[in-house]
Amino acid sequence: MRKIICLMLACMLLLPAINISASTYDDYGTATLLKELGIMQGDPDGNLRLDDYVTRAEFSKIAITASSYKNTVAKQSAISPFKDVSYKHWAAPFVSVAVKNGVITGYPDFTFRPEQNVTYEEAVTVCLKLLGYTSEDYGVSWPYGQVGMAENLNLDENVTANVGDNMTRRNVMNLVYNMLNTCSKNTDRDYISVFDYTIVEDCVLIATSKEDSSVGGNKINTSEGTYNISSDFNRENVGKKGDAVLKDNKDLVIFVPYNQQVTAYNIYQILDNKVIVYENGKTMATDIDTSISVYNKGSKSTLSAMLNQINPGDILTTYKNSEGVLDYGILNKDTLEGPIIAYSNEWYKSYGLDIGNYTVIKDGTKSTANSISRYDVVYYSKALNTVYAYSKKVTGVYESASPNKDMPTLVTVSGVTYKLEGASAYNSLSSQGVHNYGDTVTLLLGRNGDVAGVLEPKEAVGIINGYLKSTGIKQFSTADGNTISSNCISIVRADGTSADFRTNVDYSNFINKIVTVSFNNDGIASIAVRNDSGSIYGVVDANNNYIGKNKISPNVQILDISGTKAGEPTAYTKTYMSRIDGIELESGDVIYYSKNSDGEISELFLNNVTGDMYIYGIVTSSQLNTAGSVKTFNCLANWNSYSYKGATISGVSVKTGGGVGILLDGNSAVEYISLKQLSASVDDISGDIIKTKKGDYVIYGNASAFVKSGNSYMQTDLNEVTDLTKYNITAYYDKEINEGGRIRVLVAVKKD
Fold first, then answer.
1. Over pLDDT 70: what percentage of the chain?
2. How far apart are CA 28 and CA 42, in angstroms?
3. pTM summary value
């Protein structure tokens, strides 16, 4: 800021004084700099006496030692510069140099009054002279010309004195610091350059090697570059913004931090582009502006651009300036110790943790130390007194490693590739480990979904529940590099992820069924069909995690399936309690469920409750054959054209211009449902709500929108047709809202 002021000063001298606000400096940093430069030393005992007044004699010494004349001062004076300043006076050498160079003048009665306190206007006039300014610059209207120019130069920054006030050591210290950080007249160099130093303003200290291992030892990465630091560097300043004082433009010798409001957030999760934090045992959404600049390991970005890189346990520290305005943030990732595999319920003793005093968050939910189970993946932060535990396990066939099995960084299990995290996983899956290609393994997944450990499937999970979507023969690699053929099943778990398993039996008769998968000692899978339809029913209460009288786990996994009959298209979607909130589930809506050790339902397999696995659009043409048993129609959906040709579905009819939902097999529709037209006129569209005189209807998140012109339809973005002053809207829905239905299609016709 000061360098900008230097360049603009010539113009500003012609204008009224302009108040330019700046950040506050702390006393310690400023005092340390002036001591480093030999300008203000304090008492021998280190007492700065910042509230004491400064005499004119003391200020003479301060001014000269802060100037280019500092090396011309004799050890003692041979003359008396004023009648009240004897050559024997301790300040006589400094007063003599100051008078000789026109820096300081005496009074009209030829006295200097050395023991009189220096006033604000006297001190700023001296500083202006040292900067090269004269009465030609500030005029002869004493003292307001001098004071006005000092204010224009920001010499009064953090100086609390006014005209006529005596100067304390604190005010003198800040005034001299401001002078050092101001350009000399007609130059673009800070005055501190007389000491061969440079001041870099608005410098953010990002990281040392302690925060970022890529930063070299005794170095610090800043927003302005990387500099050398000494062993006694104050690391408490890391993250702060201030003035960095450099020697030879490479050594950071002093850092003067601004007065900032600093807040550290323990990140819980990112939800809807908002930062959810954990504080005092509770989660809360913050109002942090995601457009702010964020530094992480030397890289500068915005918080919004880094949201997808943030993980639970990361620490975001925000910095506001002295006026309370959010300035920037520092993201400290990889702050947790781990991953650790909890092989016993006393896992924490090996790490010296007093687990009873730690907050425990398991799978994103506040929990207790007793909830950490065997084989959970654990991380901890002593600084935050927080433990994070993750219980997700994935069982499948170990197919390959990349770049190779000798030094794997990635592994593929049942068609899904995972990154390895930690030595335990590496040791298990490398060529030195016990697991070979073709083995059925259970991966223990950590906070980022990476592999933290590996177990035998029967040891870790015993059984797996899933939706059997296909069977077949698959080739598997063996440890000796050969391949074998084996029966294989492909299931979809309740969390929506797929896995393939080797079997000794052809299970094709069980396709579209919910099955339980178990394993023998060789990792070969066998399945049993499950069907508990009718035992879970009632209204879904997402806020309190209940379905009817049944308690639901906060981490419940829900899979909604289009159908479970043989030959039906395989379609499914992962869904959430919030999506089915308020729906009254009837007998048959829940195909199967399982419970955790606390008796809470942890897995739900639903029978086409949401309809969200369909693709929705508009019928562009339709035709029945002469026998009436085959229906052909074309539709526009999901920005593509699709065709259906097959058996008429009993009780379901479609017509040109009507809404339709389809299930796909490749690019062909293999099943369809007909949508209902909203009978009431659309009065308003607000967000995801359509308002009518008969009530409100919820628009599904990826509902299709079309503009109709004549008999043709053009798909468009939903927000393009919500202006009811331009369009008449026809809406189509699949079923009533309380049954899980949603508005799926909107057709807009331009008004005349």
1. 92
2. 12
3. 0.57
